[in-house]
Specification:
The protein has one domain. The protein is built from four helices and no strands.
Length: 135
């Protein structure tokens, strides 16, 4: 059940990411528009995924705003490696294809790979249960 729920949340986050990219391309099509769109989409997807993962995957309850900010920062840091996979895949698809929608296929593939890796990073380093911590 956890894998299904995580997959659904990954799809929701991916849709937010792609939607914000799409709107970004509609607003700006100049130099570096792909990179601007990927950055905006990444931020949108990151916030949505953090909230869903925190509440419904790892069942983490924050103590206060400072604790939440620290968790979000660590969650974001764990996403750096997976974001490189996602961005790299999207850029490769955009570069190698003449189809303007190829970048979205690359994004979906990159995000899918990244989210699988990110789950294990988050479980191990971000949302650690006290009983799992070894001294």
């Amino acid at each position: 059940m956890l894998a299904i729920k995580y997959s659904i949340f990954a799809v929701i986050s991916t849709l937010f990411n792609l939607l914000f990219q799409y709107f970004s391309f509609g607003s700006y099509s100049g130099f570096g528009s792909l990179y601007v769109a990927m950055f905006i989409g990444t931020l949108a997807g990151l916030v949505v995924k953090y909230v869903l993962d925190k509440k419904f995957i790892f069942y983490h309850e924050v103590k206060d705003k400072k604790d939440d900010a620290k968790k979000f920062a660590l969650y974001s840091l764990m996403g750096v490696f997976t974001t490189i996979i996602f961005w790299g895949t999207e850029i490769v698809f955009d570069t190698l294809s003449t189809d303007p929608n190829a970048k979205y296929l690359g994004a979906v593939i990159g995000l899918s790979i990244g989210y699988v890796i990110k789950y294990f990073l988050d479980k191990k380093f971000v949302f650690i249960h006290k009983e799992e911590v070894t001294v």
